[in-house]
Amino acid sequence: MNTLLKTCAVTFAAAALLSACGGGNDDDPSPSDRTGVLTITEASVNGLDGVYGNGSLNLTDVDKINPIGSSPQVCSFKFDGANRVLGEGTAFGDLRYQPDSNVLYRTFVTVNGREFSSEEGADTEVQRGRDRIQFSGKKLTATDNSGATLRLTGLVPMRGSRPTGC
Prior knowledge:
twelve-stranded antiparallel beta sheet
C-alpha cells in the first residue's frame, strides 16, 4: 500500500509540474491572431496547386539557434493550419533566416504530406517591421529526391516578440 501511495504521489507531482510548465512542446505551433495565405502554382505534382490559409495560422515563437559546426546562427519558427481554400489539404512549414537578414536562409514547406525545401534566399523577404515573411514565386523542390517542384507566393506571419536581430 505504501508503494502505491508513493507511485500516486510521484505521478501527481509530475502531472502538476507539466501543467505548470505549459504541459506541452514549445516546438508545436499554437493558435495566433495572425492571418497568412499561401498560393501554390506550377506544382509538378497533381492536386497541389491552390490557395492555402483560410484564417489565422498557428505559429511557434521565433527562436535564435546557434548550431555547432559550420551552419550559421538562424532565427527559426514553424507554422501550421494553412488549410486549402475550396479543396482538401493543408500546408505547414519551418522557416529559417539569419539574424538581421532580409531573406530566408532555409525554407521547408509540407503540402498534403509532401515536404519541399529551398536553401536559397531568392524570391523571399523577411519583413521584421511587419512581422511576416513574404514569398514571391519562390521555387521549392521536394526533399524525397523525386525532382518534384512548386512555386510559392504569399505571406506567413511571425509572432511579434522575437530575439534581437530576429
